[in-house]
Amino acid sequence: MAEYTPTPEAVLRTLDVNEHLADPSIKQAFVTPMFDIIAPRYDRFTRWFSFGMDATWKREAMDAVREAARRIRPVQRALDLATGTGDLAFALARLWPGVQVDALDASPRMIDQARQRLAVRDADVATAVTAMVGDMMALPQGDASVDVITASYAVRNVPDARGAVREMARVLRPGGVLVTLDFYKPAFAPWRALFLGYLQVAGDMVGYAWHRDPVVYGYIARSIAHFMTEAEFSELLNDEGFDVVSVQCYLFGGVGRHVARRR
Ligand SMILES: C[S@@+](CC[C@H](N)C(=O)[O-])C[C@H]1O[C@@H](n2cnc3c(N)ncnc32)[C@H](O)[C@@H]1O
Question: What residues make up the domain containing 140?
Answer without folding.
Answer: 8-12+31-262
